[in-house]
Amino acid sequence: MEYTEIDKTNLKKLSTVALGTWAIGGSDWGGTDVKQSISTIHHALDLGINVIDTAPAYGRGESEKIVGEAIKNISRDSFYIATKVGLDWSKGDGLVYRNNTKENILKEIDDSLRRLQTDYIDIYQIHWPDPLTPIEETAMTMKSLLDAGKIRAIGVSNFSVEQIETFKKFAPVHTVQPPYNIFEQDFKNELLPYVKNENMTALYYGSICRGLLSGRMTADSKFNGDDLRNADPKFQPDRFPSYINAVEALDKWAKESYGKSIISLAIRWLIDQPISGIALWGARRPEQLNAVEGVGGWRLTEEDYKTIESIVNKYVKEPVGPEFMAPPVRTL
Ligand code: NAP
């Protein structure tokens, strides 16, 4: 396992692979199995993963509750919890709405601490920008939590450079959480150079593109119930085969060049970016994490990045991003 640290905080030695627990929450992923989820979290820790990313919105509290159950008897200083704030499901229509008001943040932090069975959060992240709340109000509230010791680092997710710049007038920003993987590369255009310059840490989400980069899928793969991949444009018949072809070609290249499979390549591709970064690996069954052993001990060269790019461009003629996941803005 390789490690990084978060500048201007006391957070040192964080594993560059983190466990993502959205699927563990069940909603948007066709359900959950609590026992299996807890085993997955324990297995992640056994493998040297010491960062667990969750959010209240994942399973409407369920993911945080499961994380809390899994860690309650484990020494609190042996792992880091990253959770989020600002998605509100109280309207009861099945959707989550962006809500970064002071009132909502102060309510959510206590709910999260209770569900996680802890008295502090290591990385507290604004889940999505909320155009109806002044960034000043959100940032000052986050700063008050940092000053009170309830949180140890402030993060923002799905924010633009401009939004982060505004936020930083009122509170520090230690981490960002953008989507980033071999098939979804928007981050590298504006945000990556900014993060590098500001010496922030990036927690990349969708590292294996919701399983596509695992190498386990075929063009016939099906997803159960409310699984978000049923609505993901990459997984629809008009695009899915081209992505699967790209995965096969990347897997072949990784095996021939490094004796590694596509899933290790997908994570390595993130860790070798020129900034402090942590790849969030979503898993809900322990064995899904075993491939983590193929991630360490090798590096991608600049030439490799170009080759990977050309393989993707050869097969994926109509690329599409993860925008379909953006939650709605509430109405006042
Ligand atoms: P991901 O990590 O790209 O993919 C996760 C899915 O890939 C798993 O649920 C699993 O699906 C499949 N998978 C994992 N390991 C596998 C293996 N070894 N073999 C085959 N399939 C495997 O996507 P993600 O979970 O969306 O993203 C990671 C984390 O980022 C999330 O859990 C969450 O913590 C965070 N996130 C944050 C945001 C945000 O807005 N800030 C948005 C999305 C995600 P199956 O179990 O169905 O096979």
TrEMBL record:
Q: Which residues form a coiled coil?
A: none
**Sorted alphabetically, which keywords does the UniProt record give?**
Oxidoreductase
Provide one Gene Ontology cellular component: cytosol
Gene3D superfamilies of this UniProt entry? Answer: NADP-dependent oxidoreductase domain (3.20.20.100)
Which segments constitute the NADP-dependent oxidoreductase domain?
A: 17-312
Q: Which PROSITE patterns match?
A: ALDOKETO_REDUCTASE_2
Show the SUPFAM superfamilies listed in the entry.
NAD(P)-linked oxidoreductase (SSF51430)
Any Pfam family matching the protein: Aldo_ket_red
Cited InterPro entries = AKR (IPR020471), AKR_Detox_Biosynth (IPR050523), Aldo/ket_reductase_CS (IPR018170), NAD(P)_OxRdtase_dom_sf (IPR036812), NADP_OxRdtase_dom (IPR023210)
Query: Annotated Gene Ontology MF terms?
Result: oxidoreductase activity
Top-level division of the source organism's lineage: Bacteria
Residues spanning the signal sequence? none
The protein in question is named: Putative oxidoreductase, aryl-alcohol dehydrogenase like protein
Organism (species)? Clostridium pasteurianum BC1
Upper lineage is:
Bacteria, Bacillati, Bacillota, Clostridia, Eubacteriales
